[in-house]
Amino acid sequence: MSVLIVHCSCAADGSAAAIARTLVEERLAACVSVLPGIRSTFRWRGETHTDEEVLMLIKTTAEGYPALAARLLELHPYELPEIIAVDVSVAHAPYAEWVAHQVGTS
């Protein structure tokens, strides 16, 4: 089983908490950690912006990723959300099994 950590930044307006809860309740993610205090600087539509954000670290599986990404696009308030999946090459086996069980891919 392949565990992924999906990085997704979100506005620091509380919307990440609702997204996290939905992803876990719908069994698309085993866990979502929301890290506060992120400051992102980026170019958007020809202008440079700096925004206060939070970072969601979403734990899922490679098999569950397509459904998670589709749902995240529906829930996210941004026009173009950051959705970056990183493959976990080594994980504590019982934790990896728990992730797979939670997202129904075990």
UniProtKB/TrEMBL annotation:
Pfam families: CutA1 (PF03091). Coiled coil: none annotated. PANTHER family: DIVALENT CATION TOLERANCE CUTA-RELATED, FI09726P. One of its GO terms (molecular function) is copper ion binding. It comes from the Bacteria. Belongs to the CutA family. GO terms for biological process: response to metal ion. This is Divalent cation tolerance protein. Gene3D superfamilies: 3.30.70.120.
